Amino acid sequence: MENSKSGFRKQCLERLKKENKKPNRLTDKKLSKEILDIIYSKQYKNILLFIPFAIEVDIRYVLAKLKKNNRFKLFVPYIKADEMTVSLYRYPLRKNRFGIYEPPKSNSKVKIDLCVAPVVGFDASYRRVGFGKGFYDRFYAKQKKIPYTIFLQRIVCKSKTIVSSAYDIKADIVVAKKGKI
What we know:
single chain, Rossmann fold, seven-stranded mixed beta sheet, two-stranded antiparallel ribbon, 11 strands
């Protein structure tokens, strides 16, 4: 089953759903602190984060901490017509058609320095396996300079083989329950 991207995605989603039945507050807080340590240690200014839903690491703590600090500009994905752009992280948040919360659209043509992306899994080449819509991949393809990229997941779901395509985004580092990979 792991030989195909869709089979690997399905396998990872099953593991994530199973993991989601357990309380994850402590794990999510620990992972959030690891993300903050990375952000504070570098000179990142424009940061692309995400607003989590159930099976993703709850990084609302990260969003709240960074929002209080004027050193950073926070952006989150904004989906319109099957295309991802970024929007300044601000309120009010509304659910889009995928069930993901997002802020009002802002005309944000900005160079992202750091991207923290949720992943379903990743393969032996450290390329992202997401939910299958390709939003991040198409967004990255339009960037002049690829941002430093952190994949974030509660549990490590890594394929021993390469199941990704060349256009799938690649991680600089993976942060998961077992530490940095």
